[in-house]
Amino acid sequence: MSQGSKKLSLAGLIGITMAFFGTVRSVPTLASTGWTQIFYMVIAACAFALPIALMSAELSTAWPEEGGPQVWVKHALGEKWGFVTSWLLWVQMFFGMVMVASTVGVLFGYVINRPEIGNNNLFILAVILISYWGITLLNLKFDMVKVAGNLGSIIGVYIPFVALVCLGIAYFLKNGINPQGYLAGFEPKKLLPDLTNLGSLPTLTGIIFIFAGVEISSVHANNIDNPKKNYPIAVIVSVLVLVVFNLIAGLTVADAVPAGEMNLANITQPFVIMTEDLGIPPIFNNIISFMILIGVLVQLSAWVLGPSKSMIKVADEGNLPPFFQKRNANGIPINIVLVQATVISLVSLLYAVIPDVSAAFLIITITTTILYCIVYLLIAISAIKLRYTMPNIERPFRLGSKGNGLMWLVSGISILSVILTIGVSLIPPASVGENQQTGYIIYQVAATVIMVGVALFIYRHKQPSWKKTDIK
C-alpha cells in the first residue's frame, strides 16, 4: 500500500470483516441445537474465531505480500507446508461448494411453489451439477462477480438476513416460546451439550464453519490507522455483532420450527412458518427465496475464480505440472477451473447415496471444516515459530507488547480448539443411521488423508521443469 493511499476507518474495517460472515445458510444448523446454540456460539467465537483472527493480523502485517496463509506457513515451516496450505485452501472448496450449491435446488423449489422437490436428493444432485457447471462455463467468458458486484450480496445476503431477524422477533413477540419448537421446556442444563448424546456434538463443527475464513479480513490490518489498537477492536466488535445477530436469528428459528423437523439445507423453511403465522402473503417467500438464490449463485461465482487465481500462482512457481498453468484468452486458469468443477461433481455424488438431504448437507459441511482446521493448525504453529526464527521482523500489530506469552496463549487456545473440532467431527451425527456410522468415520478420515496426501505426493515428485521461467 502506497503512502498516499487512503486508510480504512475503524467502521470500514468492521464492515469488511462482517461481510465475510454475513450469511443465512448456517442459521438452520445453529437453530437445530436449541438452547445449546448459545454455548456453541460463544465457544466458536472465543476459542476459534478471535484467536485465529488475532494471529492472522500479526502475520499479515508482518508479511503483507499477496498469498496470505501459505506465505506465513512457508516462512515458518518451509515451502512444502506452504504448498500444503495453499492446496488445502483450494480443495476445501470442493466440499464447501457442494454444500453451498445444494441449497440452490431447495430455493428453486420455493421460487416455483414446489417446495417438496427440495427434499429429493436426486433432484438436489442434478441442480448442483447444472448450476455449478453453468456458472463455471459463464466464468470462463465473463467475470460474473464483476457483473453481479456488491448488489448480489445486498440482495442475496443482507436483506434476507435482516428480514429473518425481524420476522423472528415479531414471531416471538406474538407467540412467546413455542411448545412444539426446539426451545420448549427450558432447563438450565439445556444450555450445555448433552454428553450422553454424542451424536449431537458434530453440529458444533457446522456452527464453527460460520467463522471459517476469519483470517481473510486480516489482509486489511495494514490499511487501518494504529492497527495495534484498532484491529483488535474491529475484530472483537465484528465477531460480537455477528454472534448477537446469529443468535437472534438462530433462537427465533429454533422457536418457530417444530422440534425434529429442521431441514439444514432449507433456509426458506423458517420464513414460511413465520410468514404464515404473521399473516404475510405467501409471495413474500417466493421473493425471499429468489433473492437468497441470487446470493448463492453470486457466491458460487466468486469461488469459481477466486481460489483458482491463487492456485495458478502456485502452479507457475513449479509446484504443479504445466497442465495446470494453462490459461484461456481471458487469462483464466482454464484447466484448474475445469478440474475443480469435475471434482466438485464427484463429491456431489454423496447426494446420490445419502437420501437425507439434511444429513448430506451436514456431512459435507463437516468435511470442509476439518480441512480448514488443518490450515488453522499450520497457521497457529507458524505464528509461534516465527516469533523465534524471525523475531526482528516489524509487526505493526503484535500480540503482546513484549515477550511471547500472549502469543503462546492465543495460539495454544487455537490449537486446542481446532484439534477438538476435528475430534468432534469424527463422531457420527445423530442423522447418520447406525449401519452407516462406520462408513461416516471412514469417509471423513479418508477424505482428509487423501486431500493432504495428494499435496505431499505432488510436492515430493515435482520437477524443476514445472517452474515457469517468465513469471511476472
TrEMBL record:
GO terms for cellular component: plasma membrane. It is found in: Cell membrane. The keyword Magnesium does not apply. It is a multi-pass membrane protein. The keyword Cell membrane applies. Keywords: Cell membrane, Membrane, Transmembrane, Transmembrane helix, Transport. Coiled coil: none annotated. GO terms for molecular function: transmembrane transporter activity. The chain crosses the membrane at residues 36-54, 87-110, 122-140, 152-173, 231-254, 283-305, 332-354, 360-384, 405-428, 440-459. It comes from the Bacteria. This is Amino acid permease. It comes from Vagococcus humatus.
